[in-house]
Amino acid sequence: MEPAVLGGKLASSLVAPLLKKLFVTDQPGAGLVDRPVRLTRLVSFRGEQRTLGEKEVRGLAGRLVADSLDSPGEPAFPRDEETAVADALAARLLALGDLDMDDVQAVRLGHRELARRLRCGAPAATTGLSSDARYFLDSATEWACLHILEFFTRRSAFVARTLVAQTRGQAELIAKVDELITRVPRPDARDTDFERRYLRYVAEQHNRITIYGIDLRDSPDRWPLEVAYLSLEATAEEERTALPGEHAEPERTVRLPAEDALLTHDRVLLRGDAGSGKTTLVQWLAVTTSRDGDRIPYVLPLRTLVRADTLPAPAAFLTAVGCPLAPPEGWAERVLGAGRGLVLVDGLDEIPAADRHRARYWLLALVRAFPGNRWLLTSRPTAVRPDWLAAEGFRELALTPMRRADVTTFVRRWHAAARAPEYEADLLDALRTKRDLARLATNPLMCGLICALHRERRGYLPTGRKELYDAALTMLLARRDRERGMAAVELSEEAQLELLQRLAYALVLSGRTEMEAGTAEGIVERALPSVASAAGQGDASTVLRALLLRSGLLRQPAEGVLDFVHRTFQDYLGARYAVEEGHLDVIAGRAGDTQWEDVIRMAVAHARPGERAALLRRLLAQDTPRLTLLALACLEHATALDPAVRAEVETRAGALIPPASTEDAKALAEAGPLVLELLPGPEGLTDAEAHGVTVTASLLAEHEQDGALAVLRRFREHADLDVRRQLVGTWERFDARGYAVEVLDHLDRSGLHLTCRTSEQRAAVSAMRPWRDLLFDGPHSAADILGCTAEPGAVERLRIRNSSTLVRLDELSAFTALRRLSLIFCPSPLDLSVLPRTIEHLSVTRCAELTGLRDMGSLQSLDLTWQQISGTRLTDSLPPTAPLEALWLGRGTTGTTGLRGLSTWSTLTLLDVEVTASFDAGDWAELARLPRLAHLVLTGFRGDEPFFSQPVALPNVGNVLLHAAPDAHVDLVCLASLFSDTNVILPKP
């Protein structure tokens, strides 16, 4: 019989009070005085103050047994054993007084263990009982213990004593553990201490960028990585399962920041061209991971590891890469075994082909032995086939070339890292205006080279672009690998140059930038007999593959296709080969093709002085603005040149640059983007020439936005109003935010208004210092306008045009200094009564129904030339109390009112009104009653209106300007005679 079954036969509400009598009255407090309160002091049949004797305990047990037998159902044991069972139960209950524990310890034991100890405390109690009686006795004992423990937990002192006991036990346990740690240090404690030192070492060791292969005499060759690092983009081609109803898309391009490559995949093979930033990314991951502390990075350059006969096991990782720290025994295995490692294996392409399969087996063995870690392997695109590790779960990503914005960010961060901010702006201008230089700066390596050489030469790039390309080629073809400690290259620098320039010239002649791999192999095969050092390296296929893998200039954008990583290298090497082979006539004959511009410039750089002069004369002989300017651009590369030829080029180009007028500027812009790097100023230019330069640059923004921006930003502090208006007016041709930062936010705002057409321009306005005069053209609501104005209180003039979303004007009340407001072509009904009372000048043109105009009592001028109003008198719509000084009324304005009520505004000094056939003598009378009216403009009349049937006396009007309708045939002289004592101004016929 289980205790629960027995409890069902005996009501707990009757039994609990009986069992409670076994214990003394509850006492407050935690029982901390003297010593813990034992059970012997809690039971009521022990101690000095007994409330229950042994006889009473036996009676209590007898009642429990009797009630059980009297409950419904079959008796649990024979009735003749009732007395013996009651005595046995009493003996067990009396055994509570012999237990050496307190109530907290009893509860911790549980009811079954407490019952077992009571049975042990009275072992003779079951002697002579039947098996059913013994079973009932055991069940009754457990059931009684349930109630006893429930009673203990309800005592007021129980919770306090429980907390005290737990606290004492925890303190004792902590003391024992601390003593154990002191005597025997745990292995993970040593690991933790080492990891702290190792992570600090990794963060310091890799927190720098180094450019190999260039000579820097007065500049550092290392810069802090954390300052100069630029996040690049990586892409992957992945399969995508089409959703129901969608067209099947077998592949899609996934784009993500390169440093996030391991966030969604634990295994990544990252491919990138030479200098694309693979090693820098490895360093960045190592540094950031070390500082985060969530994983343990291992930077493993394969070019270092393969020097040994065998690739290292985890225990030898640090030794293999020259780390001076000695880890605890087994540490690396514990890290990788726990899945805490970030293993960065760099430069698969930098080891011999025979070692790559060995590296693959080594890497895969590590991945299988230590799952759960993160693994990154870097390589150039052509080092291994596309699916080299796909079967092992490696995701393939490719680093993309830097965008223009990336280049700008890189240059700024590089100069911050090198602490050379004074050179930054000039270099950015050069990168924007010099197209061939911009095409060269498409990866971190080349950007770093350009920055370093520019700084080394105190803000000047090498004299002529040829020296820059020579430095870049030397770095890529030989020195970079050698100085990074790699094995000797298979092809010499000169051999590589010879083969590469033949490939480049073939591409230049074909007018293409890609060629079939078979065509390239044929070119190399024909060249090998004359390139001895290359001939000894194998057949044409082997040599071409070596060029692809190590030159850093060739790449394979698709299967079976080759191209140069930079078009500028193709043009440079093609021009070099053409000059060596004496093909200057071929080059000169292609001068009319804009694709040959850079080839011609590089040919001038490579040519001898006499060849240069002949080539430049061929360009001048064409007598076109573009080729004349191309000859001028070539002078940069002509170190030695016949002075007469140089003078002729400069004289001819001087007639074109700088442009002296807007017409000259437009003609100059037709010469193309080449013009941008030749535009001068602002120093030494007249205001007209400065304006012409800004017009030319603005027009060329369609083709070369960055180059045009670089020119325009030089004029941002120019004082001439026309120049500043040109700079403001060309905003829409550029990136809104970039142009605002580079140009607009530096302008003198006097005499200027800023036109905002797009949401991007609105966002840029919010980041600029305040403009006093703003025009919003397009669907901009009042809330939009207010939201983009950081300081509404600074706006004095506001024009809103073509806005279909302008519905409410109450948001404009925030413009507390607004004095002039123009509403143009806004189709929704507008309530003008909510406008700020600061408005003094209001112009409304072809808007929908207006209400609230009569409430604008602060107006000093009002233009309603193209706006209709309602009513029979002007005072029905216009504000009668406004101190109007100038008023413009159109044909639609006065269609129903005429000039009735006009004399209300006695403050008028200027009135411009369009004459209608309905005007009569009463309207003339309104005009005559205006005491201050000095200027009257009458437009649109045809001459036969009754309005002009007789002479008019306007004694207070000093000037009357008459404009007839375009198709009217009237005698203006006759009309003028109608106005006596007034100066009548007639327009020229």
TrEMBL record:
Coiled-coil ranges per UniProt: none
InterPro entries: LRR_dom_sf (IPR032675), NACHT_NTPase (IPR007111), NNH1 (IPR054547), P-loop_NTPase (IPR027417)
Domain NACHT residues, every copy: 266-580
Classification via SUPFAM superfamilies: P-loop containing nucleoside triphosphate hydrolases (SSF52540), RNI-like (SSF52047)
Signal peptide: none
Keywords: ATP-binding, Nucleotide-binding
Listed name of the protein: NACHT domain-containing protein
Organism lineage: Bacteria, Bacillati, Actinomycetota, Actinomycetes, Kitasatosporales
